[in-house]
Amino acid sequence: MEKVKDKAGEQYWTQVWKQVELPPPINVNDFSLSNHLNIAFHETFEKLLSGFDLSNKKMLEVGCGNSVWLPYFAKQYGLLPYGLDYSEHGCKQAEAILNRENLEGKIYHSDLFSPPSELKEQFDMVVSLGVVEHFSDTEAAIEALKFFLKPGGILLTSIPNHAGLLGWLQKTINRPVYDIHVILDKEMLVKAIESAGLKNLKSTYLPGCSFYVNMDIIDKKPAFYSFKKTLSKISGLKTKVFWALEKIFGRMFPSKTFSAAILSVAIKPVA
């Protein structure tokens, strides 16, 4: 079997995390424009996870480097937080975030495809937010996530919607970042989840829109970088205009064209 290719790589993520400060906590009561996308994720998580009793259950966030979502899930749903990432620097940041929030948890510095054996089937929920789309074989990446799930456990997966307008903007303005993603729409993600032996329960495009372009530098600056960075700022300003309109008229209907992300909840069958 051909080895699964990591299109991003640990060095890329370590470089990214070393350039940023710890992000602020997720505040579900902050309805400002700057927190608009976080609120959209929160509202979507609430819908996808409704009906599940998660209090005092163990969750693992795979790709937890510098993530504020671990404390979000711990505080919002009463989950016991664990994380895993192959970036040592990202793991240290995740630990610092848990400490900042006065939460007990454990972060594992490990590769998704060669995890500690004692983590097999240890978690009631596994969360991956922007992980599986970076691997050449989406099904294999999801199978790797399934390793951690108890029978009957929940997999919550989110990926950026690069099959829509956001992806076209990313490809046009900063192609190297676009190229470290496998382009998936909702149907393709669901197919990979089911092919990996999980039962997909709910999947959706994230309501609303986002035209924010990732301007990370991979290896070297793209040609006309300053001009493209200006274009990305203009794109970001247009996003805020749409968000302001959403606050007045309500969120846009989820769509493959405009939505920022794709989210799915699946369950590991009980043998």
What's the β-strand tally? 7
CATH architecture: 3-Layer(aba) Sandwich
Mean pLDDT: 95
Query: What gross morphology would you assign?
Result: globular
Count of alpha/pi helices:
9
The percent range for strand residues is 15-25%
Q: In this structure, how is the largest beta sheet organized?
A: 7 strands, mixed
Strand ordering within the main sheet: 3-2-1-4-5-7-6
The end-to-end distance, rounded to whole angstroms, is 26 Å
* Superfamily (CATH H level) name: Vaccinia Virus protein VP39
Any idea of the CATH class? Alpha Beta
Radius of gyration: 18 Å
Output the helix-strand order.
Answer: HHEHEHEEHEHHHEHE
Secondary-structure-based class equals: alpha/beta
How many separate structural domains?
1
Helix content range of the residues, please? 25-40%
Spans of at least 5 consecutive residues with low confidence: none
CATH topology: Rossmann fold
